[in-house]
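User: I'm putting together notes for a lab meeting next week and I want to include a structural view of one of the chains we've been expressing. I don't have a solved structure, so I'd like a prediction I can at least talk through. The sequence is below, exactly as it appears in our construct file.
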Amino acid sequence: LLIVEVAGLGWDRVSRLPQRSNGLHFKKLETVFPALTCTAQAAFRTASLPREHGMISNGLFFRNLRKPMFWEQSAALVAGERIWKKFRERGKRVGMMFWQQSLGEDLDLILSPAPIHKHGGGMIQDCYSRPGDLYARLTQTVGRPFNLMHYWGPLASGKSSDWIVAATRAVMAMPDVAPDLLLSYLPHLDYDFQRFGPGSSQTDEALDALAGWLDQLRVHAQNTGYDFLFFGDYAIAPVTKGPVFPNRVLREAGLFTVRSVKQRAYPDFFSSAAFAMVDHEIAHVFTSNEDVTRRAKDIFQNLEGVGEILNRADQQKAGMDHSHSGDLVLVAEHGAWFAYPWWIDKKEAPDYASHVDIHNKPGYDPCELFFGWPPFGVGQDTGRIRGSHGR
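Assistant: Thanks for the context. Below is the predicted structure for the 391-residue chain, given as structure tokens.
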């Protein structure tokens, strides 16, 4: 069985797939809440809710470290029995390509981007693979290495999905490594849906490309003896109201504190009474005590763009009452999204604000999809974002 997750393929977009994809028969699927990449993938592989698997967003706040960390790749972050456990116990082989939190997963085949960040700056592009020679073999078969610049950042494009499709087809045709169950991932819809909005001409082009790749995978699956399942993890909504800045209001209220280092404002998570770890249309607010929680709730009830505020009881009803969740969870109004900056004056922006830095930023930053100024930096104009998800 070949399972392919298509990022951002909501039911509202399926009807716009070109006619050549009519050989595929889609059905409606209710996603999990929050409707985010790591949350959806953890739910799929464990058949459980965030209260069990613990991936309440694409980032986690490690309370003992006082540090939020996004896009960490350890499989141990996802709790719970995997849906393939009994399948593998019967001697079947399972593989996972380009899924989050896959490193260290008990699988026969793994392929995931894993660059080496050099001490003096820059990085060495590479992919982690099991077996160890798999990535080298795929590079030779596909004809080029995987370019991480096409996977995320201002140059992110359909070239990432194109490479993954070619590598997925190659794995299915390798007798010595081809797994009985193979999970793969196509990311490219996310990019232009967020850049230009889900109703733009650019997204129509992305859907057209998707139809071609799904057709390739369908035909190749049938030719190599695989059944197939293609699914979308969430729908992306148009941004019509712009960004919401919860950390700015917490800083104005004296609850979020910063360190001034060379005139730049860096967050002080050790002394902050409250801060918001933002992720698209969702924000987890962590507080130091119940009094601060009540004060923060009062603040956010009057903040334009906040649609709901979930306390612990509300989180239980939503299936996300996990220790990783915030003391409050903010849900954006339809058309709004949460941005992580706590500064207004651009001179205060931390150095990582103008770079692709998915691990150090204490929140998801879609502005990394745009070039900024000066050249080689990424954008900081939150007004350019046209699509978001999570609700």
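A couple of points you could mention at the meeting. The CA atoms of residues 238 and 387 lie 4 Å apart. Residues 201-223 form the longest helix (23 residues).

User: Perfect, that's what I needed.
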